[in-house]
Task: structure prediction
Amino acid sequence: MVPLLLVLLLAVILFGVGFAVKILWWVALVVLVLWLLGFVMRSTTAGGGRGRWYRW
Result:
């Protein structure tokens, strides 16, 4: 009985980790798209150069 419970617990943990990793891939993709759009849509400065779109 204990080995069966350990296998089921391992399956639940791995399913949860797999689901979390899949969500993190989607979040990373959205952040990448926003980051690339920031480079494309950044404004120009008074001198005609490109300004920074980030604060740091």
About this structure: The longest helix spans residues 2-40.
